[in-house]
Amino acid sequence: MFAPAGMSSTTLAGTPTVLGYSAYRIGQLADPPDLGDFWASGGVVSTAQDVDRFYTKLFSGGLLPVRFVREMEKPTGTSPFGSGDYGLGPWIGTLSCGSVIGHGGSIRGFNVVAWATPDHNRAVVAMVNSDNNSMANNLADKTLCD
């Protein structure tokens, strides 16, 4: 399922194969959620490298023709969670250095954002073990904008 994007360390609603720190190991959460309950809405377990591979392939036309990707990036007038704008899948957001495009997600104990500049010359994936929704965005801002 993830092979076309070169995502070899990503699972969907299965047993996570990603190694490293987790909110459960560092004591933030007593009971890990059953990822199968979330499926694509939080059930994807991945590495920052694989998320970057996905967006690099998507934005370069490796998964869809570039003309379709550019259509996806155009604002539709809807607003995700009261901030930014929404394309046909990607969010259009703002960091301290200007507009960015990508997406984010969270599940209890975990947050991730993946942002790229509109010209796709710079990108960042930030993952944190925290329920603090702004922490990943702040990390992305520092990395992409400083």
Can you tell me about this structure?
The chain is of the alpha+beta class and 146 residues long. It has one domain: DD-peptidase/beta-lactamase superfamily (Beta-lactamase, 3-Layer(aba) Sandwich). It has three helices and seven strands. A five-stranded antiparallel sheet has the order 3-4-5-6-7, sandwiched between helices. It starts with 10 loop residues before the first strand and ends with a helix.
How many separate structural domains?
Answer: 1
Poorly predicted regions are: 21-29
CATH level-two architecture: 3-Layer(aba) Sandwich
How do the SSEs run, as a string of H and E? EEHHEEEEEH
Brief synopsis:
The chain has one domain (3-145): 3-Layer(aba) Sandwich (Beta-lactamase), CATH 3.40.710.
Question: Could you outline the blueprint of secondary structure elements for this entry?
Answer:
Elements: E1 11-12, E2 44-45, H1 48-59, H2 66-72, E3 85-86, E4 91-95, E5 98-107, E6 110-116, E7 123-128, H3 133-145
What labels describe this entry?
single chain; 146 residues; alpha+beta; Beta-lactamase; five-stranded antiparallel beta sheet; two-stranded antiparallel ribbon; 3 helices; 7 strands; 22% helix; globular; Beta-lactam-related; Beta-lactamase-related domain-containing protein; AmpC-like
